[in-house]
Amino acid sequence: MAETSTLIILGASGDLTERLLLPGLASLLKSDRGVDVKLIGTGRSERSPKEWDDVVKTAFNGDAGSDLAKRTLASSEYIQGDPTDPEHLKKLFEAAEGDSVMYFALPPAISTKVIKALEKIDVPDGLRLALEKPFGNDEEGARDLNAELLKVIPEERIHRTDHFLGRSTVLDIIGLRFANRLFEPVWNSDNIEKVEIFYDEILGLEGRAQYYDKAGALIDMIQSHLLQILAIIAMDAPASIDAIELRSEIARVLRATWIKDGDPVTASRRGQYSAGTIDGKDVPAYADEDGVDNSRHTETLAEVEFEIKTRRWAGVPFILRSGKGMTKVRKEVLITFKPVPVLPAGLTGATSPDTLRIEISPETLELGVTTNGKGNPFSLEKSVFKTDLGKPELTPYGEVLSGIFHDDPTLSIRGDVAERCWAIVQPVIDAWQSDLVPLETYPAGSSGPADWTTSKEA
Ligand code: NDP
């Protein structure tokens, strides 16, 4: 029988806990990865035992499914209190069994206060801390936060979570690249024209102005999740898939990643949706949404071109883009290959470049290649080989939690990388704050300003 660990969720009354964290825990406990978890939720809000029980049961979809899950449901409790109060934190540790994982499902400013409160008490041996993005507000903020955390516990027990690293298709990239003869030999600037990473959503603000209006698409998506995907696409082969080797390769490639030509004005574009129609429903302009402060000029669509200064990638554009209020969901990595240097005379017809499309959601892989035509065999056509990669057993948060419970930080962001990701995008943040890049508008339900290169479907 696995030893019991306690998951203490700070901010248990919040959106992340209910929508992502608890369902992730449920998927983990229903799987065969063998963790025995006592669950403690906490927050300033009141929750009767019945209310908390209902929240947890909803996450399990009424189906405990395994003995481990049943035990977690039976032993779960909510302890009301302020997580920034050291006395309350002591009480939480007293209620815990086995090693504790403290998950900060809190607004970032509150997380910082909790870390300072933890510095004032004796924390239990074996404590692990799990922190969400955004990790700090800039490079210096991330460095300060790292220094504070290290006063409480050592680096190997700090989990800076990025649930995109728990997404099965992102993890699939590692197998695809390094377990096949087909891809790795052509995975370089000799053969690849460009790499695009998209995360476009139809959804608009959905009442999350308090968080999103301060972040915007650049910080919400590109600075965090999409740079991690870029690293997985661009890194060299790690010696092994573990916390030291994989994270070292990620760190190494991100140290070579820069805004294209060092010029944020030419390398970035930003937009904000105006009123429009999505799925037949009228959507108000972002600027008219509740809680939006128009003086912030928050972007709901961001596109940034990066370059990676290594022998492998010199000259290959990496274009990262994310938007809200778009006409369709587009969550994918699209790799476009260079054309062949020459075609034999007599092979005719339109040729478009080979492409590899890794769809993050739904989980599919699509290889687009040129083949002989069905009519005249020497008139070329495009053929697409598409496969469904299948639904993973664990949700991305389930995968992240599995790493935390198994004391394995392979899929969490190393401290220096958290700082580096801020340093990479800082020139863009500065240029946008100084209004050096215009804030363009696009109607909600469109594919962005028409002249953006990434607005055109490949
Ligand atoms: P919420 O804004 O929903 O806040 C979570 C909880 O924090 C609240 O329920 C509240 O609980 C507590 N809280 C708020 N203010 C204070 C305060 N002044 N002092 C003490 N506690 C406070 O956040 P989310 O759940 O949306 O997000 C949590 C973290 O996860 C954030 O860092 C966010 O960036 C990150 N994240 C969120 C995602 C999401 O989809 N929601 C996705 C990815 C990351 P109470 O009032 O009961 O104390």
TrEMBL record:
Keywords, comma-separated and alphabetical: Carbohydrate metabolism, Glucose metabolism, NADP, Oxidoreductase
UniProt domain Glucose-6-phosphate dehydrogenase NAD-binding: residue ranges: 8-170
Domain Glucose-6-phosphate dehydrogenase C-terminal span(s) in chain numbering: 176-451
UniProt key word Oxidoreductase: yes
Naturally occurring in which organism (per UniProt): Frondihabitans cladoniiphilus
Gene3D superfamilies membership: Dihydrodipicolinate Reductase, domain 2 (3.30.360.10), NAD(P)-binding Rossmann-like Domain (3.40.50.720)
Record has Metal-binding as a keyword: no
Entries under NCBIfam families matching the protein: PRK12853.1-3
Domain of life: Bacteria
Metabolic or biological pathway, per its Swiss-Prot or TrEMBL entry: Carbohydrate degradation; pentose phosphate pathway; D-ribulose 5-phosphate from D-glucose 6-phosphate (oxidative stage): step 1/3
Record-given protein name: Glucose-6-phosphate dehydrogenase
